[in-house]
Amino acid sequence: MNSSRRDFLKGAIAAGGIVATSRLPLHARGNFEQLSVAYAHINAGAEKPFSVLHISDTHLTFANPDEPESVQNYRRIRTDLFGCRQFEALKDSIRWAKINTDYLIHTGDLIDFVSDGNLIAAREAFGPDAGNVFGSIGNHEYWKPADPEQPRAELFAACSKAYPYNLHFGSQVINGVNFVSIDDADDDVTQDQVEAFAKEVKKGLPIILLMHVPFPTPRIVASTRKYWAWNKKFRNEPPKPITFGKRGQDFIKYLKSEPLLKGILAGHLHITVEERFSPTAVQYLIAGNFAFTGREVLIT
Q: Other C-beta atoms within 10 Å of 30: how many?
């Protein structure tokens, strides 16, 4: 990220001010006025300041011409549902991130369903020209309209070949900050993920957790109910309540007492909201990237 922009954001946040678009350095404006970018600051104890663009829920809806008619019908319905410009929103976000930030993070539902067309689009979008990309998997990466009964392991394997990061559990250290991603698409975590996270904690580095399904804190639950009751366009039906299983509940309880956890980035609910999760961490949700939304997070 350009140092003048980083210094501007750091100074504005330190002063408690609102970052006005009109005051941003000129190179950050003009080409991407359709993007709606929120801002946040995580004081993680980084070796030097850097920033990431956090996006989620792009919901790409591509299908090759030779794919079954059931997939084509589903593609038409879902493309209309999400506004027909999802790939444009993703490409704009990637370009914006390369100009204005150091890293791009996508927290799941990059595709709306598993299809040959969507996997090709994912590989194209996150190819060598995308820059530094990291993230997590969402529940829609486990849905295939052509074969609803296809084993989840096969869908996971197909997406793993198209995405440039580990989808089950991953770790990426940037400037002394450990970004840890987990697959919680089933509203839960696995025992091996819990054990892998414990190993990351032993490194002694500040941690920012990336996942698709957020932990259900009171404000996030209330904001979700309000959004899905009011909004009639971008939904088929409200999402089911988030209820992590016993292992997930134990993991949440542990995280609330882990001082190395400095922030959580998630999506899934198509709303932009934040809420303190623990004494040391705030949980940040970002609305659907299909609607040209993202959040720039300055990490110091």
A: 7
